[in-house]
């Protein structure tokens, strides 16, 4: 690397006072004899001066309020287990449905069974009774079920109303 | 300013909160200024500077009261800015001398007349904008060192610590940055000094 090129690369550091004594001496000697490097040094000095004159940008008025919002923790949680109320509501609705549907279906099935009770009784127990006339299964089923009442001509639900 | 409930952190004492507020009051202007010169716009600058103070808030108890916070904050800002640049889609820098391809062949790029409408006594908004544009045209590595050196006035050793590169790298980057800025901003300075 020639002395000219080496000094050329050192000009910014010379401007900033960042050279060692040996480097400083070399740059000074070269500058005295090299108009090109002297001109380059003035150009770099001009840029440094121009940047120094830049006004500092004004801190926006909402800077501190915005910072405060970023570091403040969120409000205390009212939903300890379910931080999001919408999710809690959805889960509660699902549980309600899971409980309610079997209950309603069971009730409907019982109502339906009561309606068709006599037919079921005849189809289920009368053949059994005929096959085994000495067993009491059919009779016991008859007297313990709504079907028995229906067979006697009375609606078991009438008295409940 | 705020308490520190929740988030697994112990609550800060009123003295600690007051200490943080004092640090914000003391350093916010400088941190924002560096952020603005690096990012080139208010929105990003505000975001970078606020995030630097959020990091300070989280680390408040690990920082000794007498520590040199200025350099720490600037280092955080420069790292955040590098992250910001990496996250965004890369824009290919355009050389001032690069010809523009057209259907009829290449034509020379028109360079703005930087000597136009220069005010005599003050660096007005137009000139400030042009200087900022020239800074933004630099690669971010060069921009960081020239901002820290020529705008904030840091020595090479301090810049090396903030940017986390050897002093020799600071030296060469600063020289390249100033030469590139001279190429672009020379006419403005010539005009200002002539009038």
Report on the architecture of this protein.
- The complex is a heterodimer of chains A (161) and B (195).
- Chain A has helices at residues 3-15, 21-33, 35-52, 63-71, 85-131, 137-144, 146-151.
- Chain A has two domains: 3-52, no CATH class; 85-160.
- Chain A has seven helices and no strands.
- Chain A has 161 residues and is mainly alpha-helical.
- Chain B is mainly alpha-helical.
- Chain B folds into two domains: 14-87, Rna Polymerase Sigma Factor, Chain: A (Orthogonal Bundle); 113-194, Winged helix-like DNA-binding domain superfamily/Winged helix DNA-binding domain (Arc Repressor Mutant, subunit A), CATH 1.10.10.10.
- In chain B, strand 1 (100-102) and strand 2 form a beta hairpin.
- In chain B, helix 1 runs antiparallel to helix 2 (42-58), helix 3 (69-87) packs across helix 6 and helix 4 runs antiparallel to helix 7.
- Mean pLDDT of chain B is 80; it is low at 2-8 and 116-121.
- Chains A and B meet through helix 1, helix 3 and helix 4 of A and helix 1, helix 2, helix 5 and helix 7 of B.
